[in-house]
Amino acid sequence: MQGKKNFSRVYKEGSVVRSDYVVVYFLPASEQKVAVVVSKRFGNAVKRNRIRRLLLEAWQENHDHLPSGYYIILPRSSLLSVEENVWRSKVKVLFHEWQWASGKNSPHCSAVL
Description:
Blueprint: H1 4-13, E1 15-18, E2 22-28, E3 33-36, H2 45-62, E4 69-75, H3 84-102
Parallel strand pairs: 3-4
Antiparallel strand pairs: 1-2, 2-4
């Protein structure tokens, strides 16, 4: 998923799942793609890339069971105020709950942690 046009479409037409530590935008599609967007307020490039890698890891552990579509994952600033192991486990639980709440055929989820 690249380009401002695709991102805008996901933001406008997609559904949103919010947790204490991340916001996930989802738009159903025939293929499954993910983008993790980490702003500069999270620190220097090393810190941002670490957050990006860890969020991708959480998504990859569950993406086989999630509905096909475009995903945009945005960390929330509250992520900085807790220990890494806490938010990592919460994000993994979010995707795990999403897979059970949404099932293969449903693109929407009401799970909020």
